Amino acid sequence: ADGSQGRAAVPSGASTGAFEAHELRDGDPRRYRGKGVRRAVEHVRGPIAARLTGMDPGEQGVLDRALIELDGTPDKARLGANALLAASLACAHAAAAAERQPLFRWLAHLAGSEPRLPLPMINLLSGGKHAGGQVDFQDFLIVPRGAESVSRALEMTHAVYFAALDLLRERHGYQPLVADEGGLAPRLASNEAMLEVCVAAIERAGLRPLDDVALAVDVAATHFFRAGAEAGATGGRYRLALEGAELDAAALVERLAAWRGKYPILSIEDGLAEDDWAHWPELTRRLGTRCQVLGDDLFVTQTARIGRGIRERAANSVLIKVNQVGTLSEALDALRLAQEAGWSAVVSARSGETEDAWLADLATGSGAGQIKVGSIARSERLAKYNRLLALEHGHPELPFARSELDRFVRPA
Ligand code: PGA
Ligand code: ZN
Fold it and tell me: Ligand 1: which of 348, 371, 378, 381 to mutate, most ligand atoms within 8 Å of CB?
């Protein structure tokens, strides 16, 4: 009514969880190898537009409930979570514009949170589904927790990234090619060698491992888990192709605990598979006081699964990927549930990102404390970092969540 407008682009993932909301693709192999989204776009222009017309974009919860009811399926398969989320986020943008507020402030209002700039978790080395599977584990990330600002965090990250590149060039003749999220993807002899390179790169950049720059790992274990034929998930095995080894859950937990002892790792994501509920509590018992035990595929940003995780003490942290659930309100509900349980939270991009930077506003406005958007290469990543920098410079009153992982650091 007042001419305010909003638009949004939504991402897509490569290493998706089985329980994510349904992303609707056309499936016509002659066009974009089946990945076209004409049907999803038609749903936005047709039924979604018809339903939303006349509604108040300031009522995000009402609006999102209307979208969920309109779709009518538990996994948003009819209209497509991609169609619903694009509409949901476009409405939030329009509402912010109508309120004459920057998006992060409007999102803080919706979340009922104090905004703060997130501590970034930044992809340094890539493997798994993001890099052709040259190593088994998916992301080896750095957390510049010694930085006092986003700006300084990015400077430190740049120093470590290029130190890693120099080192890989010298030792392995590595050419600077990057993976899905902009990480370097060397073909190393073992999964552990990736961690050694991370630490060596931090030191070569003149920074202190742990105090200045800690490590995080996204194991993405779902993607090398082979369910047992009869026994279900509990009888499954984790198959490490690079090592020609098959581990049971206990052995994988053992390995991760040993790594935590040896390397400055403060966060482990998807250390076990999305269905391995039987063993997540053991992972958390073993690591939960000295490491963020983070669920991505396990929780898929859905309150039912997070609620189970809280009850079973399966983790102590949640990854928030809005398109895993399909509306903004549901993602904020998921975040709130985790925070009320005392869990930490990481607002995350997908491997298939767009140039849209709303995620930086979401991470800041929701006060989640951490953000994960990939490396410092590829502009769909940098769009988010640039937005964080703009927020930091434009809003000097915003605190920076630098101490978010401090609780996992214990005196030796
Ligand atoms: P994605 O996964 O490829 O599904 O976006 C990224 C992640 O595992 O965090
Ligand atoms: Zn993940």
Answer: 348
Six-digit token pair at 50? 């018809």
Catalytic residue of the set 76, 129, 269, 321:
321
**Is the model more confident about 236 or about 268?**
268
| pLDDT confidence of residue 234 | 55
Q: pTM of the entire structure?
A: 0.97
3-state secondary structure of 118: coil
Q: 3-class DSSP state for residue 370?
A: strand
- The helix-helix angle for 150-172 and 379-394 (nearest 10°) equals 150
pLDDT for position 411: 63
- Does the structure show a pLDDT above 60 at 212? yes
Give the C-alpha separation, 345 to 367, whole Å: 9
- Would you say 298 and 268 are in contact if contact means Cβ atoms under 8 Å apart? no
Distance 343 CA to ligand 2 centre (A): 17
pLDDT of 111 above 90: yes
- Atom index in ligand 1 nearest the CA of residue 180 equals 3
φ, ψ dihedrals at 213, nearest 5°: -135, 115
Ligand 1 pocket, residue 301 CB under 6 Å: no
Mean pLDDT, residues 126-147 taken together = 96
Identify any residues that bridge with 143 across adjacent strands, giving them in sequence order. 214
Ligand 1 centroid to residue 394 C-alpha, Å: 30
